[in-house]
Amino acid sequence: xxxxxxxxxxxxxxxxxxxxxxxxxxxxxxxxxxxxxxxxxxxxxxxxxxxxxxxxxxxxxxxxxxxxxxxxxxxxxxxxxxxxxxxxxxxxxxxxxxxxxxxxxxxxxxxxx
Amino acid sequence: xxxxxxxxxxxxxxxxxxxxxxxxxxxxxxxxxxxxxxxxxxxxxxxxxxxxxxxxxxxxxxxxxxxxxxxxxxxxxxxxxxxxxxxxxxxxxxxxxxxxxxxxxxxxxxxxxx
Lengths: 113, 114
Hints:
The complex is a heterodimer. Chain A is an all-beta fold.
């Protein structure tokens, strides 16, 4: 039973480019969460989604960041016009329902040059 | 307040010793307190979790102690092993939605020397 799958594992973008991070939740999980981890820091909540719905995006920066979880396919975290400060590890987690523990993927490490 | 404060930032323990990591929170509405273990290059993995209706939970060598009045909880690792060397995060979440919107502490880097 595969866990939460994130790809790519590493992503390098130049300033101004777009970054697209993908997350496939565990089988049977319909709740997806995105977290960001800066070097030497804890994880910060970004957004919580269910299929086709954004439930809580209170942790998302107001500009350049967006997330979706379509009916078919993985959840996507999109960062437009990346800046050096976006360099971080982005983790996706999934749960079976809103009362279940979170299971994390191994993250996408974004480097903006 | 949504903060969860964790200490120490780093911890070095000898093999066989006890590792203790502490967390404090301010929001009394938090009702689910998990601990996560993270190895380099990996995502956090759930280690053990507790709800505020109990004061202690033990799973193998790992124990959570919870003090509701002090708004503090701690992780104890008994008989620490080199394989326990990792970063440990405490977390907390609100209401009945125990899985969603975890607020994490800043992490403790544990090193267990052989």
